[in-house]
Write a structure and sequence with these properties.
The two termini are 27 Å apart. The mean pLDDT is 90. It contains three helices and eleven strands, in the order ββαααβββββββββ. A hairpin with a 2-residue loop joins strand 8 and strand 9. It is an alpha+beta fold. The strands form two sheets. Strands 3, 4, 5, 6, 7, 8, 9, 10 and 11 form a nine-stranded mixed sheet that branches.
Length: 196
């Protein structure tokens, strides 16, 4: 599957494990996951059920109830926010195809406005926290490959300042498919923008 999603099975143990992941670009991901499945699950699986353990079950329930998506480390705010508020930057040709970029900040949230060959787009993000919205690109497949979903995927995005002049916006797709995108904007003394 996309991003190294797999189903591993061990019929003799009546065991199946589904792994949904986004490990694109990691050439060893399949090997690592299969190794963990065999070493830590199949070899340790027993034909007998585990005895009831209410304490462990309660601890597991509490753990799952408190799971949160990791927010990158950095500062929530920077003095750059006032300087770059609603400034439109025209970009040179780049791998993302962004023609222009503009950022706006309002309290604990922000919006990334950009334009590409599909027109103007906007992505909402939290500052030091995730905000849920729709990913601005709606040309990706929905439940059927090759048939675009009528709206952008559901996503969460957070922005943090890595340095006083360097903003990271981290986006995670949490929909029919999983994915992520990280954008770093570097604001230079001369008022220009670097994006990577």
């Amino acid at each position: 599957g996309m991003g190294n999603s797999y189903v591993f099975g061990a019929p003799d143990k009546d065991l199946m494990v589904v792994c949904t992941a986004d490990n694109q670009g990691r050439v060893d991901a399949a090997h690592l996951m299969l190794g963990i499945f065999l070493r830590d699950i199949v070899r340790k699986a027993s034909d007998k059920p585990l005895p009831a353990n209410q304490k462990a079950y309660a601890e597991m329930q509490e753990y799952f109830a408190n799971l949160k998506l990791f927010v990158p480390r950095g500062e929530k705010h920077s003095s750059q926010e006032d300087k770059i508020q609603n400034v439109t930057y025209k970009l040179e040709e780049n791998p993302l195809g962004f023609k222009t970029v503009r950022l706006s900040f309002n309290g604990e949230e922000g919006v990334l406005y950009y334009e590409n060959k599909r027109g103007p787009k906007e992505l909402k993000f939290g500052l030091g926290k995730y905000v849920e919205s729709r990913f601005p690109e709606s040309h990706y497949s929905g439940k059927a490959i090759g048939t675009p979903k009528p709206e952008g995927y559901k996503c969460v995005a957070a922005g943090i300042w890595l340095q006083e002049n360097q903003l990271l916006i981290r986006t995670n797709i949490i929909d029919d498919y999983l994915g992520n995108m990280g954008l770093v904007f570097g604001f230079k003394e001369d008022g220009s923008l670097g994006m990577y």
